[in-house]
Amino acid sequence: MSEFNPQDPFGLLNQFSQFMKPGSGNPFMPPLSEEEIDRKILECRTIEQWLTMQVGMLQMTVKTLELQKAGLAAFKQGLEPKTDPDPNP
């Protein structure tokens, strides 16, 4: 099995696809050594951090779009002619 590279976002998927080849080991077999367990923990934490970052970016994008929508609505409201309810003061 190749070494895990945290800079490669698809590295884990590529490693998993290696198990799908005929004659390879079982991907659902638990790791047998402490080093491999530590490596798997590091892989999972790296993926968790990447996903957390992606969720944060998505939330920021949604908030930005909501602010743009509110700004556009305020701009449109400012363009509408103001009507005076009582023309004879």
Describe what this molecule looks like in 3D.
The structure is a single chain. With 89 residues, this protein is mainly alpha-helical. Helices cover 62% and strands 0% of the residues. It has 2 helices and no strands. The protein has helices at 11-19, 34-79. The longest helix has 46 residues, at 34-79. The chain is rod-shaped. The mean pLDDT is 81.
What would the principal axes of the Cα set say about the shape?
rod-shaped
- The proportion of residues in beta strands is under 5%
Task: Compute the CA-based radius of gyration.
Answer: 27 Å
Helix content: 55-70%
Distance between the termini: 86 Å
Please outline the major beta sheet.
none
Instruction: Give the averaged pLDDT, no decimals.
Output: 81
SSE order: HH
**Low-confidence blocks of residues:** none
Structural class: mainly alpha
